[in-house]
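> call design_seq(struct)
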């Protein structure tokens, strides 16, 4: 940019974009209106107060006919930006003149006795497109420094009209900023931006734009080579409430307290997992013993019969072959049982597509429920081809916890249970429901059933962690939810998982 510029004249800062302000001598609070030349739909931006009125109008007239201005953009409602608007309206004298602003500010701007209609950006998709095709994009920057504050971006020249953001207070004012500009802008932002969080929210939006030039309402115009570092420095600036020592310390204390609570929760969950795993190991041994007891008894009986017959020379080759084949099947069954349990308890954090039907079958085997059982009848309405992306072992653990809950009801004088497992899928979710006909869950227990250590069993029969861990698995590792409700004559557990995209 040229360093020789005459502030007594309008200055073109980008093609068809002009600074039309006034250099207020010995005033650190310089205010800058801008003009976009766009035929008979020209745009005046932040025209200022009556202090600059005569000079601004004089400069505008050297570029366009004052009556060619169709839009006046007001980035906020303060008098240093908007007070001259009623007088400018009289000079423009157009019925179709529009005040471009946010709806949160139009209710305040009217108090200047503005008579033109309002073009509220939040009601026009945050854009202004003129009949010639000229376009401005608006980005809201709430509370920087007013609730309806915004910035305007011209995508063709890549100029950002930033309102109060990037403004500076400097008595030794320079038209274009240099590498020391942050020091000049620092005080303004500390005093006018309400907090670091709010200011950073606005800066995050601005940082994503491809900006060649920033034209703020105050301070100096900023060229591309300084923008990136300036935004970085601004993001680290304590401002507003953050410069109040008491608030800053309170904020630090709150953050530390939240971090401590987060760590305590993490440690508690680890303890719950460890306790749950110890309980599961005990259940695993019990389940293996239960599944081995019958085949071991059959093997023992078969060997006894064969020994007895052999002692009286009554065994023939066919009988020996038949008995050995049956014994071999029992041994294979026992080996498969061990394999199932080993796979189930093996740490496996690798996600892949697995068959939901196969996972349900493995869960049924692990809970000692036979699909041919006279006590429990399970109806699986799941397509064998249906797959889901996730952790199969943890998914099986969830099904085991739910089915174990149902299986335990056999002890409580319920001799026959029907269970329906149903799957449905849409574009976003895979939903598995497990419904029983055991009378449902007591209303007072529905809201507590997933709480840690909650159980209706005797202490010697369970830890009350199964369903709590199951919900944690679904929420933390399967990107879903686990819920329960009473339906018809039973309880209905619903697993809802987001599909992999």
């Amino acid at each position: 940019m040229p360093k020789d510029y005459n502030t007594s004249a309008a200055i073109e800062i980008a093609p068809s974009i002009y600074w039309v302000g006034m250099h207020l001598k010995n005033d650190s609070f310089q205010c800058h209106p801008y003009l976009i030349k766009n035929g008979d739909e020209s745009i005046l931006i932040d025209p200022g107060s009556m202090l600059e009125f005569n000079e601004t109008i004089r400069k505008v007239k050297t570029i366009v006919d004052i009556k060619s201005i169709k839009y006046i953009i007001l980035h906020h409602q303060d008098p240093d930006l908007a007070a001259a608007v009623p007088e400018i309206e009289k000079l423009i004298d157009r019925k179709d003149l529009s005040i471009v602003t946010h709806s949160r500010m139009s209710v305040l701007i009217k108090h200047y006795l503005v008579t033109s209609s309002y073009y509220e950006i939040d009601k026009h998709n945050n854009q202004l497109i003129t009949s010639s095709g000229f376009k401005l994009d608006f980005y809201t920057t709430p509370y920087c420094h007013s609730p309806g504050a915004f910035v305007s971006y011209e995508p063709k020249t890549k100029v950002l009209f930033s309102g109060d953001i990037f403004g500076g207070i400097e008595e030794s004012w320079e038209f274009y900023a240099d590498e020391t500009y942050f020091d000049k802008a620092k005080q303004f932002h500390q005093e006018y931006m309400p907090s670091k969080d709010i200011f950073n929210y606005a800066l995050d939006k601005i940082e994503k734009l491809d900006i060649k030039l920033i034209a703020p309402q105050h301070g100096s115009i900023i060229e591309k080579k300084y923008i990136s570092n300036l935004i970085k420095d601004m993001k680290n600036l304590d401002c507003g409430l953050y410069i109040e020592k008491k608030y800053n310390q309170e904020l630090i204390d709150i953050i530390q307290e939240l971090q401590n609570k987060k760590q305590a929760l993490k440690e508690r969950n680890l303890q719950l997992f460890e306790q749950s795993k110890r309980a599961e190991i005990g259940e695993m041994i019990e389940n293996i013993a239960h599944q081995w007891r019958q085949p071991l008894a059959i093997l023992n009986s078969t060997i006894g019969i064969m020994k007895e017959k052999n002692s009286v020379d009554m065994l023939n080759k066919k009988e020996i072959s038949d008995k050995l084949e049956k014994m071999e099947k029992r041994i294979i069954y026992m080996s498969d049982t061990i394999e199932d349990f080993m796979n189930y308890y093996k740490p496996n954090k690798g996600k892949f597509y697995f068959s939901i039907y196969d996972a349900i079958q493995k869960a049924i085997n692990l809970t000692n429920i036979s699909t041919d059982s006279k006590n429990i009848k399970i109806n699986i309405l799941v397509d064998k081809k249906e797959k889901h992306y996730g952790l199969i072992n943890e998914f099986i653990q969830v099904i085991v916890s739910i089915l174990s809950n149902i299986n335990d009801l056999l002890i409580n004088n319920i001799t026959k249970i029907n269970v329906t497992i149903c799957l449905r899928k849409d574009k976003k979710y895979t939903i598995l429901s497990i419904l029983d006909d055991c009378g449902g869950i007591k209303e007072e227990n529905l809201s507590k059933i997933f709480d840690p250590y909650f159980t209706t069993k005797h202490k010697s029969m369970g830890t009350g962690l199964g369903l709590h861990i199951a919900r944690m698995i679904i929420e933390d590792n399967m990107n879903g939810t686990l819920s329960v409700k009473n339906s018809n004559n039973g309880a209905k557990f619903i697993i809802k998982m987001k599909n992999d995209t």
